[in-house]
Amino acid sequence: MGSGGVGKSALTVRFINASYLEWYDPTIEDSYRKQFTVDGQACLLEILDTAGIEQYLTLNDLFIRESQGFVLVFSLTQRDTFREILKLRDTIYSIKSTFDIPIVIVGNKSDLGDEREVETSEGEKLAERWGVRYFETSARTDTNVWLVFEEIVRKIRSSDHYK
Ligand code: GDP
Ligand code: MG
């Protein structure tokens, strides 16, 4: 989850297809499945690439309730998208009836160094406060993308609700 344009689709496509799309329809919400191995154990990860968060609130309630883990993505080049993930976390907590929620924070577009608006230390500080991991990624240059999905699988596995 994350604001429009932060690179949710680009990260998903990079992970699923090992390719980079310059443009992906921002209104398409799609799910993808990938089988891979984390810490020597196979898993089948189903990823919902969300779109238009605001418009379909009821649908969002449903997918939040049914999802086991959340990758909260912002763009390192847009400060308002960093603020947005605070709201998203509140929304997730208000819908889930537990505080044991697997979350990973991602600052994407690390390749755009000149346009950076959010410092690494700010992402790290937030992650520390929330007790989660923080990664800076680039879907374009394929930096740290796999780490994000491996980490969310680890968090899901170690959560109380995983069976
Ligand atoms: P979404 O709305 O969050 O799904 O964002 P998209 O994946 O559609 O990406 C929005 C725009 O940002 C597109 O033009 C992408 O090419 C671009 N983009 C996504 N990830 C990166 C990245 O890591 N680096 C750069 N430079 N651009 C990116
Ligand atoms: Mg998208």
Summarize the structure.
This protein has about 160 residues and is of the alpha/beta class. It has five helices and five strands, in the order αββαβαβαβα.
Describe, in plain words, how this protein is organized in 3D:
It is found in: Cell membrane. Pfam families: Ras (PF00071). Keywords: GTP-binding, Nucleotide-binding. Its main location: membrane. By secondary structure, the protein is an alpha/beta fold. It is built from 5 helices and 5 strands, in the order αββαβαβαβα. The strands form 2 sheets. The protein has a 3-stranded parallel β-sheet with strand order 3-4-5, with helices on both faces. Strands 1-2 form a two-stranded antiparallel sheet. Strand 1 (30-38) and strand 2 (41-49) form a beta hairpin. It is globular, with a radius of gyration of 15 Å. The structure holds guanosine-5'-diphosphate and magnesium ion. Guanosine-5'-diphosphate binds at residues 2, 4-10, 22-24, 26, 108-109, 111-112, 138-140. Residues 2, 4-10, 22-24, 26, 108-109, 111-112, 138-140 line the site of guanosine-5'-diphosphate (GDP).
